[in-house]
Design a protein that fits this description.
The complex is a heterotrimer of chains A (175), B (369) and C (422).
Chain A (H helix, E strand, L loop, with lengths): L3 E2 L2 H11 L4 E4 L4 E3 L4 H10 L7 E9 L4 E9 L4 E9 L6 E3 L8 H12 L2 E3 L52
Parallel strand pairs in A: 1-6, 3-6, 7-8
Antiparallel strand pairs in A: 2-3, 4-5, 5-6
Chain B lengths: L9 E5 L11 E7 L2 E8 L7 H4 L9 H5 L6 H16 L5 H29 L5 H21 L8 E2 L2 E2 L7 H24 L2 H7 L7 H6 L5 H5 L6 H4 L12 E3 L5 H24 L19 E9 L2 E9 L7 E5 L1 H5 L3 H5 L4 H11 L3 H5 L1
Antiparallel strand pairs in B: 1-2, 2-3, 4-5, 7-8, 8-9
Helix pairs in contact in B: 3-4, 4-5, 4-11, 4-14, 5-6, 6-11, 11-14
Chain C lengths: L15 H15 L2 H40 L15 H11 L10 H18 L17 H9 L1 H12 L3 H32 L4 H10 L4 H4 L1 H14 L11 H4 L9 H26 L14 H22 L5 H32 L6 H23 L12 E3 L18
Helix pairs in contact in C: 1-2, 2-12, 2-13, 3-12, 4-5, 4-6, 4-12, 6-7, 7-10, 7-14, 10-12, 10-14, 12-13, 14-15
Classes of the chains: A alpha/beta (175), B alpha+beta (369), C mainly alpha (422).
Chain lengths: 175, 369, 422
């Protein structure tokens, strides 16, 4: 017995019955959802008895130079099956996506991480902060164009251009 | 009375330098007396940006990086990464290589759980004794790793398509001598810790995670199994030939810290069973397939996962056909298991918060990567 | 009563008081009387220090404890400095003297400085009333039991001062915990010792030793409840595991000692050992017959017997420290108030009745053995009733997880097959 991977066509067929108009396109290895319908579709997938995707295994983002993708690996423990769902974020300047923390609490830290490293803002996230890097870190390091980003590490520079703008931390002295 | 004497909550930092945070990990707790009213974790002290670095290196060069994420179970990390690359490239591993991988991964699980169980006992206040007893056996496992791969902690032993070296002569004897000792240590841990009144009083009903919360919060590994959810990747999605071995999944009753501890002890017993079976019918043949050093898998993506000692360790790789991964993502079980930290600690006392943190068995290298 | 120690020869080392007296008389011929007292007091102090404090502190307290705990923890312990590591405590002391005693900027300097000093004084005062032999007691006051109780509660104040003045949150936690715990455990401790005092009819430690010598018996056999209460209470007061919540290393770093360094910390550390030795000496006196050992004290120096008993009792402290986990503060509190206090009260009542029966009927001394039997039965009965009331059943309690073969979702607990019961 091993985990059954839902093929993208099968998944699209299933989801289009469950939540109409939630699929933007279907590719060979994954099914792309419409961002506006993301939470609704995920909620339906979690609650429907046939899919039963109660466990968000993996959430990560990827940068394809011209767009971002957020990849969700969702699985059902009882049915022992897993599916890969993707969402495209086309706006590089202001990438926004609805948060799925209302569906799975486990998305909390993974969305924080994606925000931290890619700058994708997840709307309705309870506490979207940078977790690995500090607030005010210049740029989003896992983007492909990190080195040429404004405020990022420019070629030929030894330190971050944004460092100078950062105020010195206040030194508290007692007495 | 309340008008004259009033208390006010104050913020206390547990970590980054604290005996019980198992690394540079910090929790900002707001306490009202001994009771915690809010907890916020602060991580990132050990962030090395491995996912970015890996995009610049070839697939083989990335294997040592995986050693350094979860530094207490480097063999498991190697295995997970190699499985992902093999899935991406459509490679197969010879039977002997698979069996060696299973032996190594299970020995690593034993070593890691030795550390986890011992450190958890340390958190309950059994001052250093259990951790030293467990560490003594862990050292012997690390000796075997050193004998096989040349390194104790960051082994870098698995390769794409198999393992790096053939087993040394005397390996099997060394492992077979070790296993009874490990059984004895686990039995000691069972008798002296799991059946100890004070230990039960401290760990039972502390940091309870209900099964619904555990599944919803994407917990995996002993955290999920402690809550009574039967889920083990080795059973559910067997990799590297785990379907051939006979073992069982331990699951807890209530989902408290004590259940997680006993689940870890039981997993150690099951691991010993697996190692024995793997040693009994260790197949012959080559230990690895020939894979070019600058391996170029076809464009595509792969998500491979294994049951690491801490939970589901996933590697998500995207290839653009080049010699290095286009995207290298690690699904860190330690980080995601911390999703329930707030649920476990708020309302508990400071002493219980330490127990809760200890029962997660975090490795900060994996949280921060 | 001292017939067996009738010889007054200075070479009779069974009681060092002879030697002391001879020295005193010899000096009396040379020096004026006032100076002799000063000189002999100094001499006695140095002798006490060299014979008891130094070996106890350095070699039983520091070296022995570290070696033994090392053995318990599957490691060697100190073995590098000097032969068998015997110079390790000396090296530690030198290191501590050299280290800078840091004071945080926001600390209350005066109180932070005063706390270790105040911590040291009671530790030395405790030994004033401990009888090392028939005549080897510095101050044989009739209420030495009360003296001991009064003195042994003082270091709590010093600990609290240390924790409060450090201006560190961990220190504050430790300070609050130690105050709360000491107040809670003082009460059953006093009640337990009161029962001992009631049965033996004396409040003098020397008197209790004579009482045990005359029967002859040990108080632990007659009053096991009082001993249990004393042992638990005193280990809570001394901050030894399983009750070391005030300096719980895994929770609040080092409790009230967090900000201390150098010799200030060294004083706390050393005096912690001194208090543990004092408590051991006290237990050896009251519950284990003190310097008497069923007639053997005629042949072996009584002070040697006493010191050996003290060290054996101290070994129990080391043993618990090396093996047991720590309890939580609310568990300790509820244990003190809900179990220890009632049991100490019941014990006091029973012992008072026994004492009344004994004295009003003019029964022989051997009757205390019957009392002892009654008390042991009482203790076992109370523990069993306690377990019954709280439905304590270790066999029903699952200590191993369930095993399943197939993965899947949540497996509900089958309560028929022994669900958790705690």
């Amino acid at each position: 017995m091993s985990t059954r991977w839902w093929s993208s066509t099968e998944f699209a067929e299933f989801l289009s019955k469950l939540v109409p108009d939630s699929i933007s396109r279907v590719e060979e290895n994954a099914c792309y959802l419409v961002p506006e319908k993301l939470v609704e579709a995920m909620m339906a997938l979690r609650d429907d008895a046939d899919s039963n995707f109660v466990h968000l295994t993996n959430l990560c983002a990827a940068d394809y130079w011209d767009k971002f993708e957020v990849i969700y690996h969702i699985q059902s423990l009882e049915k022992n099956c897993i599916a890969s769902v993707k969402v495209e974020v086309l706006d590089r300047e202001n990438p926004v996506l609805p948060s799925v923390t209302s569906v799975w609490h486990g998305a909390w830290l993974q969305e924080c991480e994606a925000y931290d490293l890619y700058g994708i803002r997840f709307e309705n996230h309870p506490n979207l902060t940078r977790i690995l890097l500090w607030e005010g870190y210049p740029g989003w390091p896992l983007r492909k164009d990190f080195l040429t980003m404004p405020g990022g590490l420019q070629p030929g520079l030894n330190e971050f251009a944004g460092t100078a703008a950062k105020p010195e931390p206040p030194v508290h002295t007692v007495e | 009375m309340s008008e004259i004497v009033k208390t006010e909550p104050f913020v206390m930092n547990i970590g980054p330098q604290h005996p019980s945070t198992h690394g540079v990990f910090r929790v900002k707790v707001t306490v009202d007396g001994e009771q915690i009213t809010d907890a916020e974790m602060v991580i990132g002290y050990l962030h090395r940006s491995m996912e970015k670095l890996a995009e610049e290196r070839t697939y083989t060069q990335n294997i040592p990086f995986t050693d350094r994420t979860d530094y207490l179970s480097s063999m498991s990390n190697n295995l997970g990464y190699c499985l992902a690359v093999e899935k991406l490239g459509g490679l197969s591993v010879p039977a002997r290589g698979q069996a060696i991988r299973v032996i190594m991964a299970e020995l690593q699980r034993l070593a890691s759980h030795c550390m986890g169980a011992g450190a958890f006992a340390n958190d309950t206040g059994a001052w250093q004794t259990p951790v030293m007893w467990f560490n003594r056996e862990r050292e012997r496992i690390l000796d075997i790793f050193e004998m096989t791969s040349g390194a104790r902690l960051t082994c870098n032993y698995m390769r794409i398509g198999g393992v790096a070296f053939e087993l040394r002569s005397g390996f099997e004897e060394a492992v077979r001598n070790l296993l009874p000792r490990l059984q004895q240590t686990i039995a000691d841990g069972q008798e002296l810790l799991a059946e100890n009144e004070i230990f039960i009083a401290r760990a039972r009903d502390v940091a309870v995670v209900s099964p619904e919360t555990a599944i919803g919060a994407s917990l995996t590994g002993p955290m999920l199994r402690g809550s009574g959810v039967a889920w083990d990747i080795r059973k559910a999605d067997p990799y590297s030939g785990y379907e051939k071995y006979d073992f069982q999944i331990p699951i807890g009753y209530k989902g408290d810290a004590y259940d997680r501890f006993t689940v870890r002890l039981e997993e150690m017993r099951q691991s010993i069973k697996i190692v024995e079976q793997a040693l009994d019918d260790l197949p012959g043949g080559p230990h690895s397939t020939e894979v070019p050093l600058a391996f170029r898998p076809p464009a595509g993506e792969a998500y491979a996962r294994i049951e690491s000692p801490r939970g589901e360790l996933g590697y998500y790789l995207i290839s653009d056909g080049g010699p290095s991964p286009f995207r290298f993502h690690i699904r860190p079980p330690s980080l995601i298991n911390l999703s329930v930290l707030k649920e476990m600690t708020v309302g508990a006392s400071v002493a219980d918060a330490i127990i809760a943190l200890g029962s997660v068995d975090i490795v900060v290298g994996e949280i921060d990567r | 009563m001292l017939s067996f120690l009738a010889t007054d020869h200075w070479y009779d080392l069974r009681d060092l008081a002879n030697l002391y007296r001879v020295v005193l008389e010899g000096l009396d011929h040379i020096f004026p009387t006032g100076l002799v007292y000063v000189l002999t007091a100094l001499l006695g102090f140095i002798a006490f220090f060299v014979v008891f404090v130094l070996p106890s502190q350095l070699y039983v307290g520091v070296y022995g404890e570290r070696r033994l705990i090392g053995r318990m923890q599957a490691r060697q312990g100190p073995n590098r400095v000097g032969p068998l590591g015997l110079l390790q405590p000396v090296a530690d002391a030198i290191k501590l003297l050299q280290k800078e005693a840091l004071t945080p900027r926001s600390a209350d300097r005066l109180i932070m400085w005063a706390a270790p000093v105040l911590f040291v004084a009671p530790a030395i005062l405790i030994f004033a009333v401990i009888p090392f032999g028939p005549r080897m007691v510095f101050a044989d006051i009739p209420v030495s039991l009360m003296y001991f109780l009064a003195i042994s509660s003082l270091p709590v104040i010093a600990s609290f001062m240390a924790g409060w003045s450090s201006n560190n949150k961990y220190s504050l936690f430790g300070a609050m915990r130690i105050v709360a715990m000491s107040i809670s455990y003082e009460i059953p401790l006093v009640l337990g010792l009161l029962a001992v005092s009631v049965l033996s009819g004396t409040m003098s430690l020397q008197g209790m030793v004579y009482w045990q010598q005359d029967i002859p018996t040990w108080m632990i056999l007659i009053q096991p409840i009082a001993f249990a209460v004393y042992f638990i209470g005193v280990s809570a007061e001394l901050n030894r595991t399983p009750t070391d919540i005030a300096e719980a290393e895994s929770e609040i770093v080092a409790g009230y000692l967090t900000e201390y360094s150098g010799m200030r910390w060294g004083l706390f550390y050393g005096m912690d050992i001194a208090y543990a030795l004092g408590a051991s000496a006290f237990a050896a006196t009251i519950f284990f017959g003190g310097w008497s050992l069923f007639g053997l004290e005629q042949w072996v120096p009584p002070w040697l017997i006493f010191i050996l008993k003290t060290y054996l009792f101290y070994f129990v402290f080391i043993w618990t420290r090396g093996t047991l986990p720590r309890l939580r503060i609310d568990q300790l509190m509820s244990f003190a108030w809900k179990f220890l206090l009632p049991i100490a009260l019941i014990n006091l009542l029973v012992v008072a009745v026994e004492r009344l029966i004994w004295t009003s009927n003019d029964l022989p001394d051997a009757i205390v053995w019957a009392f002892g039997a009654v008390n042991i039965v009482l203790m076992v009965g109370i523990v069993f009733i306690w377990a019954k009331v709280f439905k304590y059943d270790p066999k029903k309690r699952p200590t191993k997880p369930r095993l399943v073969n197939e993965p899947g979702g949540y497996r509900p607990v089958d309560l028929e097959q022994g669900g958790p019961s705690l």
